[in-house]
Amino acid sequence: MFAFILRRLAIAVPTLLLLIVLSFVLMHLAPGGPFTQERALPPQVLANLNAKYGLDDPLWRQIWNYVYGILVHFDFGPSFVYPDRTVNQLIADGFPVTLTYGTLSFLAAVLVGVTLGTLAAIRQNGWLDYLAVGISIGAQVLPNFVMAPLLVLALTLWLGWLPGGGWSFSDPSFWIMPVIALSTSYMASIARITRSSMLEVLGSNHIRTARAKGMPERRVILRHALRPAMLPVVSYLGPVFVSMITGSVVIDIYFSTGGIGKAFVDSALNRDYAVMMGVTILVGALTILFNLVVDILYAWIDPKIRY
Amino acid sequence: MVIEHDKMRSLAARMAQPEVRGRSPWADARRRFLRNKAAMAGLVILLLVALFAIFGGQIAIWSNEELDFSVMGQVATMGHPSLENGHYFGTDDLGRDLFARTVQGTQISLLVGIVGAGIAVIVGTLYGAVAGYVGGRTDQVMMRTVDILMSIPYMFVLILLLVMFGRSMTMLFLGIGLISWLDMARIVRGQTLSLKNREFIEAARATGVSTWRIIIRHIVPNLLGVVAVYATLLVPLMILTESFISFLGLGVQEPLTSWGALISEGAGTMSYGTLWQLAFPLFFFVITLFGFFFVGDGLRDALDPKER
C-alpha cells in the first residue's frame, strides 16, 4: 500500500509542477504585461518597474522564483490590478465560502445519489425505481447554470422563501440554493451509476450465497452488496469534485456568494493574470490531491487490486 | 396418434424455404435502434432543432441585430411573445427580436458542439489508435500524457486561454477541442488493444502492410461503432461547456450569441417579469441535450446489447 501511494505521488508531483510552469508560460506568451495601461508609461518607468518585480530576468529564472514562492512560501505574488492586495488574500477571502457550499454539495450529491440509486436497484421496476430513473434522466440536462435561475425564480421570486443571493456563514438559508444548484446534476449521475452497478452486484454469486444462507436482506445489501457496488461511484468522485469547484464559478456569480469563483471571473474580466493563475494552480493542486485520495480509496475498497 | 396437420404443413413449408439469410451485425443494430422509442424521439427532436437552426432565419421577420424602437424601454409590457408584431418569442431587454436571436444562438451552440466533437473524433481516434497499436514505451508515454492533461482543471485553463489570447470563436473552438479528445483517446486505445491481436491484423502485418496503413485501413474502421456512440454523447457535453463559459460572459461575444449567453441574459432579467427571455433559449437547450443523450444511449444499446 505504501509503495502504491508513493508511485501515485510520483505522478502527482510532476503534474502539479507542469501545471504551474504551463500557466506561467501561458501568461508570458499573452500579449500585454502587468503594467500595460491605456496610457503608455514612459519606457524608463516601465523598465524600472520591470526590474523591481524581476520581470526583466530570464524566463527560467522567473519561473523558478514563481514555483519556489508557491511551493516554499505558499505565496502566489501580488495582484496585477488591485494595488493593495495579494493573490493570497483574494484566495483566503473566497476559499472558506467555496469550501463550505462545495463540501455540502458534494456530500448531498453522494449521499442522496447513492441512497436513491440503491433504493431504485432494490425495488427494480417498482414506482420508486421509475421515479429515480426519471429524476436522473431529467436532471442530466439541468446543469448548475440552468438550476440557479430556475431555483431563484421558484423559491425567491414566486414563493419568497429564500434570499436570492448573498452569503452568511451563520444563516443556512443562504446555503440551500447554491447547494441544490450545484449538486443536482451530479446527484442524478451518481444515482444512475449506483443503480446499474448495484443491479449487477445483486445478480452475482456471493449475493445469492448470502441470501441462501438466510441472511436478512438489509444485511445482504449493506454488508455485501454496497461495497462492490460503490467502485464505479468512487471512480466518478474525482470528476464530481472538479465540477463542484468549476461550478462554484457560476454559483459565485449568480448568487453573489463571494467565493473563489468570483475572484476568478473578476480577474478574468480584469485580465488580472496573477489571480487567475493562482486560482488555477490552487484548483489544480486540490484536484490532483483529491484524485490521489480517490485512487487510494478505490484500491482500499476493491479487494481485486494489488498494489 | 393425432397428427397436427397445420403444424406439419408449416414445418414442411419452412424446410422447403431456402436457408434464412444471415443478418449482419449492422442490420441488427439498426433494427434495435429503430425500435428504441426514446432514441427515435431524440432523433426527431434533433432533426426539428436542426431545421429550426437552418430555416429559422427565413421565418423571422426581424433580424437579430435590429432594435424594435416601439417596444424599447417597455419590454416588460410590450415585448412579450406575439404573432402580431412578428416577435414570435418576444424581444430581449434591448428590443431585439428573441426569435432571431434564438435561431442564431442555436446555430452557434450546435456548431460549437459539433466542431468540438469532430476535433475529439479525429485527434482522439488517431491518438488512441496509435498508442494502442504501437504499444510499449510509446503507449506508456502517450497515455501518461493523457493522464496528466486530464488532471488539469480544464475549465479554468480554458478560461485562462480565452482571456489571455482574446475571446474569439477560433480560440473557443481551439480550447474546447484541446480538452475534448482525452476521453476519446482512452476509449479508443482500450478498443485498439483488443483489436490488435486479431487474425486480420496479423494477416495484414504478415503481408508487409506498413504500421500507419494498418492503423488507418484496418484499425480505425473497426473502431467506428464506439467512436460514433461516444461522439454523439460528446456533442451535448461540448454544448454544456460552451454554454457554461458563455453564461459567465467569457465565451461567445456580442453580436454573436449562444444558448449559454441567452440563458444568462434571460436569467439576469427575469425579475422584471420578462420570463420568455429565459424560457425560449432554455427550452431549446434542454430538448437538444435530451435529444443527443437519448440518441447516444440508443446507439450504445443498439451497437452493444450486452451493456445496459
TrEMBL record, chain A:
<keyword id="KW-1003">Cell membrane</keyword>
<feature type="domain" description="ABC transmembrane type-1">
    <location>
        <begin position="95"/>
        <end position="298"/>
    </location>
</feature>
<comment type="similarity">
    <text>Belongs to the binding-protein-dependent transport system permease family.</text>
</comment>
<feature type="transmembrane region" description="Helical">
    <location>
        <begin position="142"/>
        <end position="161"/>
    </location>
</feature>
<dbReference type="InterPro" id="IPR035906">
    <property type="entry name" value="MetI-like_sf"/>
</dbReference>
<feature type="transmembrane region" description="Helical">
    <location>
        <begin position="233"/>
        <end position="255"/>
    </location>
</feature>
<feature type="transmembrane region" description="Helical">
    <location>
        <begin position="173"/>
        <end position="191"/>
    </location>
</feature>
<feature type="transmembrane region" description="Helical">
    <location>
        <begin position="99"/>
        <end position="122"/>
    </location>
</feature>
<keyword id="KW-0813">Transport</keyword>
<keyword id="KW-0472">Membrane</keyword>
<keyword id="KW-0812">Transmembrane</keyword>
<feature type="transmembrane region" description="Helical">
    <location>
        <begin position="275"/>
        <end position="301"/>
    </location>
</feature>
<dbReference type="Pfam" id="PF00528">
    <property type="entry name" value="BPD_transp_1"/>
</dbReference>
<dbReference type="Pfam" id="PF19300">
    <property type="entry name" value="BPD_transp_1_N"/>
</dbReference>
<dbReference type="InterPro" id="IPR000515">
    <property type="entry name" value="MetI-like"/>
</dbReference>
<protein>
    <submittedName>
        <fullName>Oligopeptide ABC transporter permease OppB</fullName>
    </submittedName>
</protein>
<dbReference type="InterPro" id="IPR045621">
    <property type="entry name" value="BPD_transp_1_N"/>
</dbReference>
<keyword id="KW-1133">Transmembrane helix</keyword>
TrEMBL record, chain B:
<keyword id="KW-0571">Peptide transport</keyword>
<feature type="transmembrane region" description="Helical">
    <location>
        <begin position="171"/>
        <end position="188"/>
    </location>
</feature>
<dbReference type="InterPro" id="IPR025966">
    <property type="entry name" value="OppC_N"/>
</dbReference>
<keyword id="KW-0997">Cell inner membrane</keyword>
<dbReference type="Pfam" id="PF00528">
    <property type="entry name" value="BPD_transp_1"/>
</dbReference>
<feature type="transmembrane region" description="Helical">
    <location>
        <begin position="278"/>
        <end position="299"/>
    </location>
</feature>
<keyword id="KW-0813">Transport</keyword>
<feature type="transmembrane region" description="Helical">
    <location>
        <begin position="223"/>
        <end position="250"/>
    </location>
</feature>
<feature type="transmembrane region" description="Helical">
    <location>
        <begin position="146"/>
        <end position="165"/>
    </location>
</feature>
<dbReference type="InterPro" id="IPR050366">
    <property type="entry name" value="BP-dependent_transpt_permease"/>
</dbReference>
<protein>
    <recommendedName>
        <fullName>Oligopeptide transport system permease protein OppC</fullName>
    </recommendedName>
</protein>
<feature type="domain" description="ABC transmembrane type-1">
    <location>
        <begin position="106"/>
        <end position="293"/>
    </location>
</feature>
<dbReference type="InterPro" id="IPR000515">
    <property type="entry name" value="MetI-like"/>
</dbReference>
<keyword id="KW-0472">Membrane</keyword>
<keyword id="KW-0812">Transmembrane</keyword>
<keyword id="KW-1133">Transmembrane helix</keyword>
<dbReference type="InterPro" id="IPR035906">
    <property type="entry name" value="MetI-like_sf"/>
</dbReference>
<dbReference type="Pfam" id="PF12911">
    <property type="entry name" value="OppC_N"/>
</dbReference>
<feature type="transmembrane region" description="Helical">
    <location>
        <begin position="40"/>
        <end position="62"/>
    </location>
</feature>
<feature type="transmembrane region" description="Helical">
    <location>
        <begin position="108"/>
        <end position="134"/>
    </location>
</feature>
<comment type="similarity">
    <text>Belongs to the binding-protein-dependent transport system permease family. OppBC subfamily.</text>
</comment>
<keyword id="KW-0653">Protein transport</keyword>
